[in-house]
Automatic annotation (TrEMBL), chain A:
Signal peptide: none annotated. This is Serine/threonine-protein phosphatase 2A 55 kDa regulatory subunit B. GO terms for cellular component: protein phosphatase type 2A complex. It comes from the Eukaryota. Belongs to the phosphatase 2A regulatory subunit B family.
UniProtKB/TrEMBL annotation, chain B:
Signal peptide: none annotated. GO terms for cellular component: nucleus. Pfam families: SERTA. Residues 30-77 form the SERTA domain. PROSITE patterns: SERTA. InterPro entries: E2F-SERTA_domain_protein (IPR052262), SERTA_dom (IPR009263). Coiled coil: none annotated. This is SERTA domain-containing protein.
Length: 440, 241
């Protein structure tokens, strides 16, 4: 916490067209992928630190851009399938190439990203432009040699995992075995093998026999970072279910059910809606889970199902505004949450381009803003405050002047360093802490 | 928005009664809020069926909210019984909360005056009724949910329509679809396609859960041509063909 508020620098990259819909660092943090509403994926790469300027740590530049998904039309249902990228997940790197999974509502794709920085020259039968030589001009044989060329990043789709989902995919998660991954939609979770596209195994199915009995949907799911048999999924009723794939082929019976009893004093017609979990993330240690619901982030200990061990208020001042937020649909916004590399700080987005960080050790929290005005490159981010009546300081924002169209739904934290990526509508902000870039 | 309606209500009360009825005032303002929330939720559920990409999670959460309100109102005994006095608030109060959601429908109604909708299912002047709700062609009673300052007798039909909505929430009755469709005399309605689409789960997955609530309309690419019957004309307006 102390490190991040000290001297973060900022690189704001504006993607001209589209609203960013997902942000994800790879396992080393060298690459940062973003997906947008137009089906594009943009990958940023961190420049290696320069010896000439030791204080200028690597900044992120565009590495590759490609069109991952196109809009489709489902003729049977007379429905357009959006090309919006819902999630991107990197595969652990196993060779020189990088691989990632990207998904829209219906189809998951495996992309391979390779670099080419050499090309062969000196063919016998082809000339420089690749045209066939007139054989009569060939008088001697030469061995083609590899010559350096400008770096070219090539992206190719290696697998397309289609037709696995009737409902909209909300999560994908790569297993620690690096061979399988899961995809979850509103009612079902499927397990895929990365090499097999024509078959998937259904591991969770909560669709009721009679759809009129439907009262709960799956909202997010993730594999445990270390135990390849464990995964968790969250529901719209605020519960988490930890499942063990060794127990049964169909994991409809959870191994553990994490649910906090409702607070009767806070009960309203909106209680269920605000308890719906919009994101769930295992800690890097695998010991804890982080969940985000509309007003709070909660830390759960895998060993305790009865209640979360920590609860942090993201924007409790909205509790009295729930009816308006229901009317304008903001109450259905799905915010994500993130751990830092050492699991000591958690982060999540809010409205007005604010995002919040909570230090689990010191119990201090901070509100920061991602906006062009307050984030000139190398500028220090100033903590913001929302005032709820009472004493108002000079730069406070009042609850009523919050801009609910500026929401930070997607955030990501570098796996090792204090570098964060914040998606604010169609702008990507990358903040890093210069003074202390190592984890504390 | 609530404050406005509440203030009018409070002023009216205070003119008539003493502080002893302050408790009653609180109760009725709660009922007012609850009613507004119910209206808003029903509108949201209807609207979600018109969207290209309905969100199942959102629909389920809204439907659960509606059920909660219905349960509470049933326990209170305020469900189904509509005393004319209880409905004495000005029509605008009830609509304040749904104003924003109604706006698109109002604009459309301004451009295309609603044709007569169904027969004998609505009691108020037809021209006042917003065509939006009749996109659920078989669910015509809902048109009175969108009543815009019509006479008070419409309130009876509104509550009756709520009953019908909840009945279909609870009991799925496929045969009633055909009955409701029997009014439609347009040759352009391919009954089989439409019924298959609504009943057979070929409709968008996210809306499946609420097929008991309101069937989806045929998609915009389907057969709503210009010289359709009344209901089809309305559907056409709504999908903006």
């Amino acid at each position: 916490m102390r490190a991040l508020t000290a001297t973060p620098s900022c690189l704001a990259v504006s993607l001209p067209a589209d609203i960013i819909s997902t942000v994800e660092f790879n396992h080393t943090g060298e690459l940062l992928a973003t997906g947008d509403k137009g089906g594009r994926v943009v990958i940023f790469q961190r420049e290696p630190e320069s010896k000439n300027a030791p204080h200028s740590q690597g900044e992120y530049d565009v590495y590759s851009t490609f069109q991952s998904h196109e809009p489709e039309f489902d003729y049977l249902k007379s429905l357009e399938i959006e090309e919006k990228i819902n999630k991107i997940k990197w595969l652990p790197q196993q060779n020189a190439a990088h691989s990632l999974l990207s998904t829209n509502d219906k189809t998951i794709k495996l992309w391979k990203i390779t670099e080419r920085d050499k090309r062969p020259e000196g063919y016998n039968l082809k000339d420089e432009e690749g045209k066939l030589k007139d054989l009569s001009t060939v008088t001697s044989l030469q061995v083609p040699v590899l010559k350096p060329m400008d770096l070219m990043v090539e992206v190719s789709p290696r697998r397309i995992f289609a037709n696995g989902h009737t409902y909209h995919i909300n999560s994908i998660s790569v297993n620690s075995d690096c061979e399988t991954y899961m995809s979850a939609d509103d009612l079902r979770i499927n397990l895929w093998h990365l090499a097999i596209t024509d078959r998937s195994f259904n591991i969770v199915d909560i669709k009721p026999a009679n759809m009129e009995d439907l009262t709960e949907v799956i909202t997010a799911s993730e594999f445990h970072p270390h135990h390849c048999n464990l995964f968790v999924y969250s529901s719209s009723k605020g519960s988490l279910r930890l499942c063990d794939m060794r127990a049964a082929a169909l994991c409809d019976k959870h191994s553990k059910l994490f649910e906090e009893p409702e607070d009767p004093s806070n009960r309203s017609f909106f209680s269920e809606i605000i308890s719906s979990v919009s994101d769930v993330k295992f800690s890097h240690s695998g010991r804890y889970m982080l969940t985000r619901d509309y007003l709070t982030v909660k830390v759960w200990d895998l060993n305790m199902e009865a209640r979360p061990i920590e609860t942090y208020q993201v924007h409790d001042y909205l509790r009295s505004k729930l009816c308006s937020l229901y009317e304008n649909d903001c109450i259905f916004d799905k915010f994500e949450c993130a751990w830092n590399g050492s699991d000591s700080v958690i982060m999540t987005g809010a409205y007005n381009n604010f995002f919040r960080m909570f230090d689990r050790n010191t119990k201090r929290d901070v509100t920061l803003e991602a906006s062009r005005e307050s984030s000139k490159p190398r500028a220090v981010l100033k903590p913001r405050r929302v005032c709820v009546g009472g004493k108002r300081r000079r730069d406070d924002i009042s609850v009523d002047s919050l801009d609910f169209t500026k929401k930070i739904l997607h955030t990501a934290w570098h796996p090792a360093e204090n570098i964060i990526a914040i998606a604010a509508t169609n702008n990507l902000y990358i903040f890093q802490d210069k003074v202390n870039s190592d984890m504390h | 928005m609530f404050a406005r309606g509440l203030k009018r209500k409070c002023v009216g009360h205070e003119e008539d009664v003493e502080g002893a009825l302050a408790g009653l005032k609180t109760v009725s303002s709660y009922s007012l809020q609850r009613q507004s929330l119910l209206d808003m939720s029903l509108v949201k559920l209807q609207l979600c069926h018109m969207l290209v990409e309905p969100n199942l999670c959102r629909s389920v959460l809204i439907a659960n909210t509606v059920r909660q309100i219905q349960e509470e109102m049933t326990q209170d005994g305020t469900w189904r019984t509509v005393a004319p006095q209880a409905a004495g608030r000005a029509p605008l109060d009830r609509l304040v909360s749904t104003e924003i959601l109604c706006r698109a429908a109002w604009e459309q109604e301004g451009a295309h005056p609603a044709p007569g909708l169904g027969d004998g299912h609505t009691q108020g002047p037809v021209s006042d009724l917003c065509p939006v709700t009749s996109v659920q062609a078989p669910r015509h009673p809902q048109s009175s949910v969108w009543e815009m300052g019509g006479p008070r007798e419409n309130r009876g039909s509104f509550h009756k329509s709520l009953d019908q909505i909840f009945e279909t929430l609870e009991t799925k009755n496929p045969s009633c679809m055909e009955e409701l469709f029997s009014d439609v005399d347009s040759p352009y309605y391919d009954l089989d396609t439409v019924l298959t689409g609504m009943m057979g789960g070929a409709r968008p997955g996210p809306c499946e859960g609420l097929e008991g609530l309101a069937p989806a309309t045929p998609g915009p690419s389907s057969s709503c041509k210009s010289d359709l019957g009344e209901l089809d004309h309305v559907v056409e307006i709504l999908v903006e063909t």
